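Chapter summary example.
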Amino acid sequence: MNRMHSPDRSRIDAELTRRALFGRGAAGLGIAALSGLLAGDSAGPNRAHADGLPEPTAPGQPQPGLPHSPPSAKRVVYLFQNGAPTHVDLFDYKPKLREWQGKQLPAELLGDKRFSTMTGGQQDKPALGEVTEFKQHGDSGAWVSSFLPRIAEIADELCFVKSMHTEAVNHAPAITFFLTGSEMPGRPSMGSWLTYGLGNLAKDLPEFVVMTSRDQEASCGQIFYDFYWGSGFLPTRYQGVQFRGIGDPVLYIANPDGISRSMRRGILDDLAKLNSMRLDLLGDPEIATRISQYEMAYQMQASVPELIDLSDEPQHILDRYGPDVKRQGSFAYNCLIARRLIERDVRFVQLMHAGWDQHRNLNTQLQIQCRDTDAPSAALVQDLKERGLLDDTLVIWGGEFGRTPFLQGKMEETETWGRDHHPYGFTIWMAGGGIRPGISYGATDEFGFNAIENRVHVHDFQATVLHLLGIDHERLTHRFQGRQFRLTDVHGQVVQDILA
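The structure predicted for these 500 residues follows.
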């Protein structure tokens, strides 16, 4: 019975042989096709690169032909204020708002302008004057709020750009637009573009470091999305490395128990050989990233503990940054670490501090935010200048948009006064790195509503930052999905008048 129902052995062998033939053939063709696609992907940047020269394979090296021009800045510290600081209360003094307090703003200003849903159903939009006091400071006569006394002291070092305008009216798209040039996630961030184009200066620290902080009151629920410092379609070795606000700044760089540093070195050397063989076979740029990141983790085992050891900081420097300077994860601590990173030649340091979203707590939370960020921001600029680093380090301070010159809420309910999101005119400031100090550039109208003089769009700002680092924003491109991409999309003009 068994013999009658047993299949012919030679037939099984033949079937297996055919299956093996087609399976192996398909696998071979698949590997060949995959290798071709990967080779095409890696060739994409070559074709897309400025001057038509091939992209270097050595991690951390600048792209051929870069910088395009002599740079004014080598490094950047971006103090990004999530939630949008209110320009009309901090930097953009508008006496007209005080005159019109409680009166409806002119209809021609409001028009069909978009705001967030917070005021979507609010019919009245009464003017609200500054909730702080303004004074002029320095030889430049810059108007700065009484809530920012330390920034006021360094007004002559700063360039206030008072005519910024953007397109998004909600936080995440607006932040993404500032940092990547697109409101949609998926594009490389500014730090990624810079490190991709210029390579790294530091040998034992990442070229792009990110730190986040928030107000202790947790007054807003904004999230720090990873794509704010992501590399998008660039190889992932160009994405920002986030330093944590609690515990070890970077996870997984410490050796496991029982593993010595020399043993770790041997393991990494063997892994590098295996990964190099795989890279030669497949041409996948992510394998090159893996090799370089393993090596960077090894270097950081020594560099990071030394970086965060503040025992060598003089007391007067610690005092300058404020009482929170030793609390890991605070904005003050992050600003001091940023200076130490800049000293060690990290290319791009991105600090993000949330809590500026004052829809219903303007009369309370604004002062708290200013207190927490004023001294550290000013101390960073002063510290860099005293150490001779400000000349070639660009410092940027600002949020994703401004706040409305009209009141969100009811005039009689002062405890819940607020301001809505406002993309049509707002202020940022910049210092060092080839920026003209002691000037205020551009202007909004008499209500602080629209940018009307020397208007600066987000793409203009990005083009200017790249220019300061020696990059022509139209020439630093990367080919992806059949088209050339750049930080400034198809827009942007360098703002020549703010260059030193």
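To summarize the output: The chain has two domains: 2-48, 75-249+308-498.
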